[in-house]
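Note to self: the last two entries modelled the partners one at a time, which told us nothing about the interface. This time every component goes in together.
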Amino acid sequence: MTGADAMVKCLEQESVEYVFGYPGVAICPFYNSILDSKIQTILIRTEQNAAHSASGMARLTGRPGVCAVTSGPGATNLITGIATAFADSIPLVCITGQVNSELIGSDVFQEADITGAVESFVKYSYLVKDAREIPRIFKEAFYIANSGRKGPVLIDVPIDIQQQEIGEFAYPEEVRLRTYKPTVKGNTLQIKKIVAELNKAKRPLICAGGGVRLSDAKEELRQLVEEYRIPVVSTMMGIGVMATEHPLYYGMVGNNGFPWANRAMKEADLIMMIGARVADRAVNQPERVMKDTVLIHIDVDPAEIGKNAGATIPIVGDAKHILAELSEYEIDGNYSEWIDALENYRREMPVVRKPVEGFVDPAELIRKMSYKMEDNAIYVADVGQNQIWSCKYHVVRNGRFLTTGGMGTMGYSIPAAVGAKLACPDRQVVAVCGDGSFQMSMMELATMRQYDVPVKIVVLKNNYLGMVRQYQHFTYEDHYSVVDLSGSPDLEHIAAAYGMKFLRITDMENIDEKIDEVLSGNTSCLCECIIDPMDLV
Amino acid sequence: MNRKVFQLLVENSSGVLSRISGLFSRRGYNIESITAGVTANPRYSRITIIASGDDDILEQIERQVEKLVDVRSIKVLEPKDSVYRELCLIKVEVTDQTREGLISISNIFRANIIDVSENSMIVELTGNQSKIEAFLGLLSGYTIMELARTGITGLSRGSSDVVWLED
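The predicted structure of the combined assembly is written out below.
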């Protein structure tokens, strides 16, 4: 058995079903061995998207997504995808081929110091120096990626190590890491303090972040919220943790969030942040918001607590465990006046949009499409104006909402949707992007076609990099610089070239029928929606 | 701006030091000195770091460092509960007239003369930082040709918070 055989065996032991990647000589032994395995390989069209697809898959399966690329440019191309997963705490195991061990450091063809280059975007990385270490390293990598605060782990394997004979293969039963022990269970004393504060509070608010989803604590949260009738808001990464139309859910906070949700944050006398970073986009001037507020911060990463706002009650651990333990206590609070007030805010502060006739109104399109999508559909939003409209107007029922909130990487939606669809072939997957982000990933239409991955793609086309144009509108008084997307291809031809169904929607006439047509059937579809180029989020 | 002395126990493997120093540089933390060496158990290294910043930053440093997979533990060495030492080598220019003076200052500080040439001497001094600063202050009349300082290393006093390392 060679090192490459062992790598494949390790992936089998971890029940990996798909590997996204792009080969080159330095990873060829691995791709040769994987042919004898049941693991399916997906040839993505550029390495960055291998990480995004693996991310989409990880977010649906709850297990690390896997990608494998070659050395040098293959590895460096992967970095943006890795950084995206790192910012969103998505577990990945990224395998890179490397030049022969003896040549490392001599700048030979396609050599890059990938473990060094990726250091600030991975939870951990390995450069394998002896193939006999492969089982241990893979076992550790999968464990590290998917425990504590999740994130990407990179394994760099020189080609000679992949070719090295190792004899018998034995996969370790358990991980033995002396220096890595993430906290899972919350401190009971701190949990009792939460109960005491909730008893005292008049205006409590839960702010749910992506950590609730990552720790699979959605049910525990819903039970707590419903039992004690505590209102909830979410960060961008927390969208979908509560059903959008749940009566106690008040939507997304932050500088692109809903005004009533932000007002709730301002007026609450107790805020319970769960799996959220209190980051700049979500909480404006956290030190001011939190001054007179009891801040309970639940996070699996101790370094997040107190990083952006000092918590009154910090509690380190896994949200699922902590919420389950919290539910064992009786909370004696009545917040109905507060909920009445929030209901009023929601009524009094409507979001008014003035859509221009003769275009598709993206807000209305997204809202209408939500109700027409299957109940458990997966909605993948890209980055730009489309992301903000998606966050605000997509209605999640029992489905999922995926986007990159941390890094904000354009081009995320299509490859992530591919990963999500492969993970859940029976669920409807819709990627929504702008014409800028679409062109960053449009090469993946080939991947969709090659492996028959029927994803619906909705492109909100305004011939602009809309989010930047909007910024230049406000900041530079319409002095537009490098945001004009003229020269973009005719999407109808693109769809035809890739053998996809195509639909163009130019205005709101018969919009229902048109959306139905886009969503009908388990086939891929490219839908171009012409929106007002001057529209603002 | 405060200073803290952190003591880390880490895996003794390649790349650990670069992971730690990389964390400091990318998060913009100030590092004043860093020393590292293997412990009695060769699987671990002990690293002493002096960092400065306001209290929030110092707390973040502790938490971010602790998060690194290779870091087994980090603790703050409080001055009152700890001993710190630094080694300093100083090459001083001397003449027949100044040599005796330097030797007597060195004796007072229990510093060792470890190299002598016609026009220079190397003095070796061990101590806490204030002792070294005081000694260097007394050399103001001399020309220091070269100076090498290790940065401090330290241990906490007593045995109450020893981390016992398994084999």
